[in-house]
Structures are given as structure tokens and as C-alpha cells.
Amino acid sequence: MPKTKPTFFSFLNDLKDNTQKHSLNLLFAAILSAMFVVIALTVFFGIYYLVISQTSISTVLAVRFIFLTANYLLVLILASVVQIATIKVFFEPQFKLRGAIASVKTFFWKFLGLSIVLNILFFLFSLPIYTAIFFFSIQDYILSLIALFVGIILLLLFTSYIMFSPFILIEKQSNIHQALKESADLAASNIWGIFLKLIILIVSLVAFNYVISLFITTPLIGGTIEIGAIFLFFVIFIIYLYTIYQNLKVNAHS
Prior knowledge:
Layout: H1 8-53, H2 60-91, H3 97-125, H4 127-137, H5 141-162, H6 165-171, H7 176-188, H8 191-216, H9 222-252
């Protein structure tokens, strides 16, 4: 008996199942990763302020440029570590710290390379948005709106095609090119469905962020709510993307 293609309601059911199955381990992995990130950034900026405090005025700009470049690379490295540790949870649901460290060692260089490629492509596809800012600065509002609309559509389509590459790289131990190609091939089968799900996700997160913002200024608990919301956003976001990926794989084999 042939398999039926996933509907949006089956997608929501899968989303609920994945949330129940993976959310606690993802949250645990995210918290441990966040602790690692905070320690690394604290050390980095501690070194930065120590060096900058002893730098002469004539060389301060060069030192700042070097640290700015180092900060960008450090963020890429830390983001790669966090994503590897959390994505691995989907394929090894029982989270273990030793296993997460082993996964980071195994996939780090390929994942970092993928992150660099995606950042470059993301910049290229976002050029219409920078163009929109330019048109806005010269008060050409019509061209600014057109460029902004084109830029947003291009970014969403680009994201729809490549957003599964991190899952594929880890699940199938692919190289960068294979992960990008397979992600694009997988997405091509239902690109507008993915596009619509991305819009739903973005609208939902914006609405949720608005609700959370109403409580952030609450005395004593506002900061705790904000931190909790960040972790919740991350867990919802990654489970949502994984569920789309999971549904597309079912669709591809049906």
C-alpha cells in the first residue's frame, strides 16, 4: 500500500512528537553549549580589554580591526560547536556530554567550512536589502520597498533550499558540496510548502517575541524570562526545521 504524502496536519503532529521526544535533551545540550560560549567569549573579551588598555593611540585601530576579525571567526567557531552538539541530539536522542564532544571533534572542520560557505551565500543573497537601505537613504522609497521585497523573497527561497544541509552533513556524514546539493534537491520537491512553513515560523516567533517582551520589564523576573525565551526560541526553531526535514525525507521515499 503506497504511503501518503505528509499533510500540514501530519506535519503538526510530527512537530508535537519531535517536541516531546527531543526538547529536554535539546534544552540540556543548548544550556551546556551556552555555558561554553559564555566562558569562551568572557575569556576573549577579557584579553581584548587587557590588550586595548595597554595599546598606544597610534595602533589602537589596527588592534581593534584584528580583534574584530578574530571575534567574527570566534562566533563562527562557537556557532558550529553549538549546532553540531544540538543537531546530533536528533540522531542520538540520549544526550551524553562525551558523545557531544566526540561529535564536535568529528564534524567540526566540515561544519565550519559549511558555515563559512553559507555566510558568503547569505551575504550575496542579501545584497538587495543593502540596496534597499541605499535607496532609502536617498529618499527613493518606491525603489527601496521593491528592493527590500525582492531581498526578503530571495533570502527566504535561499534559506528554503539550503537549510537542511547541516542535518544532512551530520546524519549522512557528507562533505560540504554533497550536503548543499542534497539539501537543494530535497527542497526542490516541495519548495513552496517549505517557503510557507518558514513564513509561519517567522510570524509565530515574532508574535511570541512580542508576548515575551511584555514581561521582560517585569521587576526581578524579567531577566530570567528573557533568558528562558532565548533557549525556548532556539529549541522551537531547530525542532521545527528538523520536522520539515523529516517530512521531506518521508515524501521523497513515498
